[in-house]
Amino acid sequence: MVTGLLWSRTQVEDFSVFDQPFYLGIAHDLVETGRFTDGFMFVPVGAGGARPPGMRFAPLYPALVAGAAELDGALRSGMDCLVATGGKTPGCTKHALSLRCLQFFELAAFFWLVWWMADAAGGVLVGWLSLLVSFGAAPLLLRSVNYLMTEMTCLVLIASAMAAAVQALRCQRITMWCATAGMALGLAALTRPAFLYLIPASAVGAVALGGWRTRRPVLAMAGAAALVIAPWILRNEIVLGRASLTYGYDSHTLVQRIAFDTMTWREYGLSYVCWLPDGNEIGRALAGVGACDRFGWDEHPNSFYVLGLRHMLYESLAASGGYEHHLGYLLRAYIFRMPLKHVLVSIPLALRGAYVAHWWGFVLLIACLAWTFRALRCSGARERSVSQNIYLVTVLPALFMLAFNAAVAVNQVRYNLMLVPAYSIAGGLTLRLLVRRFAEVQGRQLSYRHPVWRAR
Predict the structure, then answer these.
(1) How far apart are CA 358 and CA 297, in angstroms?
(2) Which pLDDT score, from 0 to 100, does residue 453 have?
(3) What CA–CA distance (Å, rounded) separates 356 from 364?
(4) 65: helix, strand or coil
(5) Which bin fits 49, alpha (ψ -120 to 50), beta or left (φ > 0)?
(6) What are phi and psi of 241, to 5 degrees?
(7) What does the pLDDT read at residue 114?
(8) pLDDT of residue 170
(9) Angle, nearest 10°, between helix axes 60-71 and 97-122?
(10) φ and ψ of 428, to 5 deg
(11) Is 440 left (phi over 0), alpha (psi -120 to 50) or beta?
(12) How far apart are alpha carbons 260 and 237 in whole angstroms?
């Protein structure tokens, strides 16, 4: 109820804001022609009056938008207007009640999963405390409900994968629940391609933490994920001659990230300040007006983001001979030539992406890392409690994706919403610890003042 009231007060933006035209354009072509294209933002209409098939983006979210547009006339009208105007939306409707309602229910399911995993990790009190803590991220998540982008669908799929892995730790049907987790991970990869790398990372992490005895559940997880992804890759091989998940957008994203490696060492030090919550104001106070202008994500002149999005993109595409060789060229010409600089710049970018929901994420990042270190300090899986293993299932995938996004993308906060369950559970565990310490202190004071308590 509270979340619904907050949602009713959030602002709905035009369809042209952020990455919405990417997904709406593909969905439009899917409705009109019955095939996946790269959308009007990347490929113009061909001689036959339609765009050719494409695979620049993963298919699940555009298919979801297309399905909603078949049922929602207002969404269909706004989508058609967006494409007809080339992304210029004055006068176009921005109504999409069916899809936004679906995303709101995804958010509700996500909060329930956070509560359930927290209860499994620490008991009833931790469950409710963690749910209370998670509401600190509600304003940010509700904005994602209103945008027709992948965030909410990815979030509920990743939370479902985490919950299935938690259930695998709690019951005897380990292989079945690990396969369920793999299916959810596969669907997440079909929604946002970066999650493809979480599948092998999760397999390696499970074996590293649980030992060789986890091989059967790990194989079930990886196999289920592969089965989910395989039809799309097969389609790409048959239709486009490329047996891969996507094509083109990976290097397009990477070149934007590489642009940040060109910062000077003075700017590198300043990045730790400018990427703090309210960092622009702090940077202005410390280094003067405009000190943080180069670090933002808007198209500010001379910013690193614009450098990667424009000049470096065009230059590297020309030097490599097009998107077919673009990714390999970026690795050879930039990352392999200055690997240490790339790693070092990834550190403040990771911190920037970790500050989910502003200062809420800043504070809970510290608690999250403290509880993670405590769980990992145990020398083996048998020494860790079930609760600690459950917590690691929620936090380690999120930390991996945080580091991965910092290395290959500009790592905006919305890429790292899967940190919310780990932050929430860490917050719940911390609050329970504080409550217990407070009760112990009060008990000692009461015992000192009233000796009769000692006898009891």
Answers:
(1) 16
(2) 37
(3) 9
(4) helix
(5) left
(6) 75, 25
(7) 97
(8) 87
(9) 130
(10) -65, -40
(11) alpha
(12) 34
- Residue written as tokens 């391609």? 193
Q: Is residue 188 within 8 Å of residue 154, measured between CB atoms?
A: yes
> Is 64:191 a contact under the CB 8 Å cutoff?
no
**Whole-number Å distance between alpha carbons of 32 and 51:** 11
Q: Which residues of the chain have pLDDT under 50?
A: 452-456
Give pLDDT, residue 454. 42
Amino acid occupying residue 335 = I
Place of tokens 């380990």: 174
Nearest to 65 by CA among 105, 16, 102, 13: 102
Place of tokens 């509270």: 2
Which DSSP string do the residues of 391-446 spell out, in sequence order? HHHHHHHHHHHHHHHHHHS---GGGGTTHHHHHHHHHHHHHHHHHHHHHHHHHHHH
Closest C-alpha among 350, 275, 260, 264 to residue 305: 260
Looking at residue 447, its pLDDT comes to: 61
One-letter amino acid identity for 427?
G
Query: pLDDT for 299-328, tens place per residue?
Result: 677 899 999 988 999 999 999 999 999 999
CA distances from 108 to 9, 264, 416 (A): 17, 44, 18
d(CA 408, CA 115): 32
Please tell me the distance from the alpha carbon of residue 5 to that of residue 7, in angstroms, as a whole number: 5
Domain map (residue ranges) of the chain: 1-95, 96-246+350-438, 249-337
Q: Which residue has the tokens 């892995």?
A: 165
> Do residues 376 and 385 touch, judged by C-beta distance below 8 A?
no
d(CA 276, CA 352): 6
Distance from the first to the final alpha carbon of the chain: 44
Upper half-sphere CA count for residue 323 (Cβ side, 13 Å): 13
Tokens 């943080």 identify what position?
A: 292
Q: Which amino acid is at 8?
A: S
Q: How far apart are CA 45 and CA 68, in angstroms?
A: 24
Residue where the block lists tokens 């992406």: 353
The type of residue at 38 is D
Percent of the chain at pLDDT exceeding 70: 94
CA distance 183 to 165: 11
| Side chain identity at residue 202, one-letter code | S
On the CB side of 85, how many CA atoms lie within 13 Å of its CA? 18
